[in-house]
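G., the chain you wanted modeled:
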Amino acid sequence: MGLVTTVAPAVAEGSAQLIGSQVAMKEGSGTGASAEENGDKCDQLLRAPIGVEEVRKDKDGVIESRQWKIAETSGNPIWIVARTPSEDSPKSAWQPKPGITNLLFNPPLNEVLEPDKPEYLAYAPVDVVNVSDSEQFDSMTGAFGTGIGTFKWRDRSYSYVLVKELPCFKPAKEK
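Predicted structure as tokens:
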């Protein structure tokens, strides 16, 4: 079981980590696995789904997100936006996330996101405490690529990766 390695030494805190994470994203081409070439990795993602959010930052630095999940329609898996059934939520499902900085992203999410260029953030537990955690970590690294950083949520550490396109399955058309 591999642990997430540090992308850059903490000597030059922000900028070195930001540069290191951008290199990691470029090396992975930012797209993740394709179903045609990586059937086993995509099957793993179906068996052990992970957290996936589409995140974007506006020119004022405000981060918004919307959750994605895999659904099976007509026997073919697709990515769909997970909408919260509420009259308050916008049809696009984008929601401001002002508290996201409290999750202690390393490198900081607001530094790795470019304004008005949404990306998909996939995450899985780094601290493996059961088989499910291990399977989710394998799903993330297999389908999305190696993590570029970590964050803390509910007293647990998670590895995260950013990609420009969802791997394995086509996204549903937005209405």
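The two ends are 41 Å apart (CA to CA).

Shout if anything looks off.
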